[in-house]
Amino acid sequence: MDWTDVTITVAQKDSEQAEAIAQMVVPYGIYIEDYSDLEEGAWEIAHIDLIDEELLKKDRTHTIIHVYIEPEENPTEAVAFLTEHLTAAGIDNFIGESSCKMEDWINNWKKYFHPMPVGEKLMIQPSWEKLADTQGRTVLHLEPGLAFGTGTHETTRLCMEMLEQYVSSGAEVLDVGCGSGILSVAALLLGAGKAVGVDIDELAVKTATQNAERNHVGDRFTGICGSLTEKVTGTYDIVVANIVADVVIALTKDVEQFLKPGAVYLMSGIIDERERDVLDVVKQRFEILQRKEERGWVALAAKMRA
User: Fold this and answer.
1) Within 13 A of 37's CA, how many CA atoms are on the CB side?
2) Whole-angstrom distance, CA of residue 32 vs CA of residue 66
3) How many Cα atoms occupy the beta-carbon half-sphere of 52 within 13 Å?
4) What average pLDDT does the segment 260-264 reach?
5) DSSP letter at 130?
6) CB neighbours (10 Å) of residue 127?
7) Within 13 A of 73's CA, how many CA atoms are on the CB side?
8) Is 147 within 8 Å of 203 (Cβ atoms)?
9) Cβ-contact 229, 176 below 8 angstroms
10) pLDDT per residue as tens digits for the range 135-168
11) How far apart are alpha carbons 267 and 252 in whole angstroms?
12) Which contiguous run of DSSP H or E holds residue 189?
């Protein structure tokens, strides 16, 4: 089986931040095409000033980042993760994949996404497969489409496991960067009374709403298209953010206005190398209740200091 080459094209000015996001997808490195300093680089590295004409024709204004996905991994999950996180970071991008066309991405979920138990109580069930042995778990029926969040990525699983611990009957939940809506729906199936899902991607909000309806909790779910909390009102028992470190840091600066007394703040999507940066901000006003880690990804549960 072949590896999949996922390419992310961004403006050169955004390359450093985009590279950091791309690095989160795979543990074994990425390949970067950046010709912005071609002449200077050629001289510094090889001490030559004669450069192949084809190289000189390369676009100097954009960077192309290559992420190579192993055959047994799901390239569509990687594409969804990149799309969600680059958009959240405000980075214009174009994502391509060498092995299939964009219109095939939705169907490609089916090759990699199968029924999967998460935590102690939930079973994620792809909508296109026959109902699996539930093992006595509550079934979460999911059609992710192109939105991030199937439960196969560590960041999502860690969040779901924490939700299982902190959701109480009737709790009100705010899901920032909701993607497919998997965390909102999970919270509702675990007993929450209300969930509000926010995403900057209009398609993600539509997908989340459809997944809530698919699980018969649509009457308790509200989808909002917007950046972080700019359109959010009210206060919540749980705020969950499965995004990236920089966005978690930005959210943390004003998240307290959306927290009820005693509320829990769940954060994920944090690569271990950025954990200290997040903690430096979070610990200023929050007490860390719990830390979970899987394959270099960190999730945190926190509560406002008294």
Assistant:
1) 6
2) 6
3) 4
4) 97
5) P
6) 12
7) 17
8) yes
9) yes
10) 899 999 998 776 677 777 888 999 999 999 999 9
11) 10
12) helix 182-189
CA-to-CA distance for 210 and 212, rounded, in angstroms?
5
Residues paired with 94 in a beta bridge: 9
Domain ranges of the chain: 4-104, 148-304
Q: ∠ at Cα 302 (21, 88), nearest 5°?
A: 25
Q: What is the CATH number of domain 148-304?
A: 3.40.50.150
Give the CATH number of domain 4-104; options: 3.40.190.10, 3.30.70.2200, 3.30.70.120, 3.40.50.12780. Answer: 3.30.70.120
CA distances from 74 to 70, 125, 146, 154 (A): 8, 17, 13, 13
Task: For CA atoms 4, 126, 300, 228, give the dihedral sign.
Answer: positive
- pLDDT class of 131 with cuts at 50, 70, 90: confident
Residue 100, Cα to own-chain centre: how many angstroms? 22
The Cβ of residue 298 has, within 10 Å, a number of other Cβ atoms equal to: 23
Task: Specify the amino acid at residue 79.
Answer: V
- The two three-digit tokens of residue 134, written as one number: 């539930």
Residue 216 pLDDT > 60, yes or no? Answer: yes
